[in-house]
Amino acid sequence: MSPNVTSEARQPLGRTVAQRKQAHELRKTLKPLLEKRRRARINDSLSHLKSLILPLIGKNARYSKLEKADILEMTVRFLRDLPSASSKPAESYTEGYKACLQRVTTLLPRTSLDQSACQRVTDFVSSRTLPQIQQ
Question: What mean pLDDT comes out for the span 92-96?
């Protein structure tokens, strides 16, 4: 005697050929939409990264038509050139504070502040070597 095998038992997980075909068609339809969303997220993130990195490296708006690879290369170069972290938190804070003061002094002339305001800020920054945190 041969065992009776129903047609439902032959279909994996009870799905019919029509259901599998419909699922395949749905995946084919959704794939371009998902890819479009993924590319949009990447482009938005690169645009945001560009707006963050250009002022940090001292570039201006004339770099509006950068390729994606250029933005990533600038970012890698900037991050690679950052001083390495100190082992002690106090040293790390001190180095960060000094780097911040130096960056303010460098970027200040590029702002729209008038000359006297720039000079006052520069004088203030020059008078501060470290914050008075150890009192």
Answer: 77
